[in-house]
Amino acid sequence: MELLTKLLNDFKSSAKRIETLPIYRVDDELEEYERYINGVPEFEFEKNN
Length: 49
Prior knowledge:
Elements: H1 2-9, H2 30-37, H3 42-48
């Protein structure tokens, strides 16, 4: 615990917080995500939009 306290006190750079969730779902991105999962090349997706 002493080491962690020292590391946090000596921190001189920026940090980012990452939030982990059991499920990530963004309804506006669902169609694009399904195309990606199914291997549709990005250029085909762009032609259809």
